[in-house]
Amino acid sequence: MKKIIIAGIGPGSKEDITPAVIDAVATADVVVGYKYYFQFIKPYLKEGCECIDTGMKRERQRAEQAFDMAVEGRTVVVISSGDAGIYGMAPLVFEMKEQRGEDVEISVLPGISAFQKAASLLGAPIGHDLCIISLSDLMTSWDIIERRIKAAAYGDFVTAIYNPKSNGRYWQIYRLRELFLKERSADTPVGIVRQAGRHDQTVKIATLGSINLEEVDMFTVLIIGNSQSYVAGDKFITPRGYYREQQDSEEKKGRQIMIESFRTIESELKNRDIPLDKKWALLHAIHTTADFDMENILVADDNAVSRLYQKVADGELKTIVSDVTMVTSGIRKGALARLGVEAKCYLGDERVAEMASSLGITRTQAGIRLAVEEHPDALFAFGNAPTALMELCDLIRKGKAHPAGIIAAPVGFVHVRESKHMVKPFTDIPKIIVEGRKGGSNLAATLCNSILCFDDAEQLKPGRDL
């Protein structure tokens, strides 16, 4: 019988060669392939089996010789590393059969692909939709490869990268990272597996932002996670949807919606390469306002969110004071209770109206004066009244107030900008400022919430206390 068997021999270890491939090799009269791979099948060859090496980059000659041998009536096995149908010999052999019109039976035996072996060594990185891209432009133009990279990045596919780099082809992997970082966070996990399944195998996990691309070569397979991928210990995991569905009884549906919203917002930021501390506040601000101008006008001191969260966690910050009741209404009650923090607004205090009337000041100013007397070291959050913020600045300058932090987000047209500028000189006080005329009670409240749940920022899982 005229027969060609196309066999994937796996990535390189005997444990990863399937029994069907071993049986096929054992019955072959001729094995055609690249000589490097003969070492992996040599123990299974029958006596007298001929091994034909056509050398690197001579796939067409390899296929022609296989047909010549098969036409003579010999059983021919064509071997490829990994799976013969993935960047292997299978497509070429089938195409050649059509061209030659030979009456030769062709069968394909699958093998474990390099990306599958790499994934098993990394943990479970390909648990959801995935694609595979080769960066070799020997047979495919770079324009097409780049379109595929953009589609994979935009589509949030887990992506395995073959042929990432060679001595003469070095820049393509840098361009791939550049394109992925336009759609994915710099914290996205990346698995780097070199010589998967072979004696000099190495396995590493990095991120899109931190990976050392100089360590990558032709023997390396990269696996880039999707927006849900994460690292637990030394394992790279991409969750399946099923597990998340089972968690609905534990995590409210509203939180799941909020998590997806945050991921959407992050993917649309003009600049995602900002410190997590500021990004967490920014994501909250955009989620509340649907206003991406927040990227331009939300200003936060270095580590303001994390510093204030740490004060809460250490029990140093016990009180949040707001200028109006709408701010305190928007601060999550579950977070306050969980952390032992009280949110207060003094507008309803009976002393406020009397003080405002006797001193000729606004009620919000009076509320801040009373608040400073009782809680001079509180976190002060302003979402409505610029006069209240200006009052706090005056009290700070007089040494009567020393806030743990300030959220400056009053909204309006009169004294609003000025009040925010007045806050900036207090460099020793952590501040989050919404510059210009924009702001609002809802915005001040959500910035408070970003502080109270900062420990959820790294996993990008907001809404614990909804």
Folded structure, characterized:
With 466 residues, the protein is of the alpha/beta class. Helices cover 40% and strands 18% of the residues. The protein is built from 19 helices and 19 strands. The strands form four sheets. The protein has a six-stranded mixed sheet with strand order 14-19-18-17-15-16, sandwiched between helices. Strands 3-2-4-1-5 form a five-stranded parallel sheet, sandwiched between helices. Strands 7-8-11-9-10 form a five-stranded mixed sheet, sandwiched between helices. Helix 6 links the parallel strand 7 and strand 8. Helix 15 crosses helix 16. The radius of gyration is 32 Å and the shape is rod-shaped. It starts with a strand and ends in a 14-residue tail after the last helix. The model has no long low-confidence stretch (mean pLDDT 93).
Helix and strand arrangement:
Elements: E1 3-8, H1 19-27, E2 30-33, H2 38-41, E3 50-53, H3 59-71, E4 75-80, H4 90-100, E5 105-109, H5 114-122, E6 123-124, E7 130-134, H6 142-154, E8 158-162, H7 172-180, E9 189-194, E10 202-207, E11 220-224, E12 230-232, E13 235-237, H8 241-246, H9 253-268, H10 276-289, H11 294-297, E14 298-300, H12 304-313, E15 319-322, H13 325-330, H14 333-339, E16 342-345, H15 350-359, H16 363-374, E17 379-382, H17 386-397, E18 405-408, H18 416-423, E19 431-434, H19 441-452
Parallel strand pairs: 1-4, 1-5, 2-3, 2-4, 6-13, 7-8, 15-16, 15-17, 17-18, 18-19
Antiparallel strand pairs: 8-11, 9-10, 9-11, 12-13, 14-19
Helix pairs in contact: 3-4, 9-10, 10-19, 15-16, 16-17, 17-18
